[in-house]
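Troubleshooting: if your tokenizer reports a length mismatch, compare your output against this known-good record of 493 residues.
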Amino acid sequence: MMITRLLCTLAFSAAVAPAGAAIIPFPADGAQQVDPDTQLVLRFDQPPALGNSGLIRIYDAANGRLVDTLDLSIPAGPTERTTLPPAPYLATPYVYANGPRATNANTKAGTPSAGAEPGDTRYQLTIIGGFTDGFHFHPVIVRDKTATIYPHHNLLEYGKRYRVQVDAAVFGEPVQWQFSTKPRGPAADAERVEVSADGSADFSTLQGALDYVPDHPAKRVTIFVRNGDYEELVYFRNKSNITVQGEQRDKVRIHYANNEVFNPHPPNISTNEVPGTFPSRRAAVTADNVKGVHLRDLTLETTLKGQAEGLLMTGSENIVANTTIIGSGDALQVNGSTYLPDVKIIGDGDTILGRGPAFFERCEIQSKHAFMWIRNTADNHGNVFLNCRFTTLGGGQTELARSPVNKGKGYPHAEAVLINATLSGISPAGWGPVTGHTSQLRFWEFNSRNPDGTLVDVSQRHPASRQLSMERDAETIRNYSDPAWVLGWTPPR
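Known-good structure output:
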């Protein structure tokens, strides 16, 4: 759907904590065996105030070398959509460099890739997952009585002792403490590593674990994420044969306030529409150009409105299972063959976006406006839903999918097929608006039912859509009920 104005403000504090307030750091002063990917946490006896100036500096305590600086006078990121004219897509596929990964330790954040123009340099920038163009981020986030400090990624190392120095302007009084990191990480060939937000596992952040494990391990590597709240931007690229396994779906929450305004595409290159184009940076969690990556038993959420995915996944032969995905417009974007069993998706409109193929089984999809905008070509299937439930939020009615001409381009092969769906709050037309050529469009339903089990009245369905029947379309129904037929590979069921 069309999203109007995008707001990017977080509920951060803005006054100054009184001098003498108790401050408890984490890691604790003098702590040892700390994960190098740790976030730095300060706990106050009352809600702290975050100033708009001051430095947070991290030093190598052994030699006094300045390792990292966070400058609170630099805004986190833009809060208003740019008014630049539409940019073209890449003429050739984006190249993912092989070899050592670029990090903040060896590359300046904001270094352009693929001919992109540098973004606005007035904001905070950090390299995540090797994406040198960088991400805007919040160096400090205050929640109630806790302030979390986010060092630039990949600057802290194993086997080091660090001193943290926080200027008085940041919280109203200076803070200083030291800690030592673990001497080494898990074995290079480990088939399982663990993440815990409290620092008691191999890693403190999901991003830290993803950065550490090999990109293409010979045997599948499982990253087990213990229950906890993980407020972090997650981006990983060009990886395969990795499973991210949550401990409990509703108790592993990975989230961030991100959207297209806060982390926009480059001024001269657009994203999302053409296969192989410039990667998007607007999702809370992005799995970019990956193969055989499995995400299981997680909650993934962006907390901003606008074009804002909880999960954006591109690649092939991927699985997202028993996972909750929460976003706004384009809450879930899936580009490339993906199997999605038992997934719950919540969004504001165009809640599922992508180019397919994607097979959804036993899923629950909730949306305020049109549930999907599928953009597949004739080369692959689109979105197929088997035994799924669609519920319109807000008490109104909306459509299952739309297919408008976008910036002069239509989607004549758009495909969305529902088999044995349960529908609530769907308009009588069911589908639309649809513009452009419709002869190859596949907006199909079979056996759609109301929540009480009765058949949906489809007598007013959009003329471009079609109702399948067992008498006439038995083979088609059988094929579209088979994920291997839709995806081109056989996922476990």
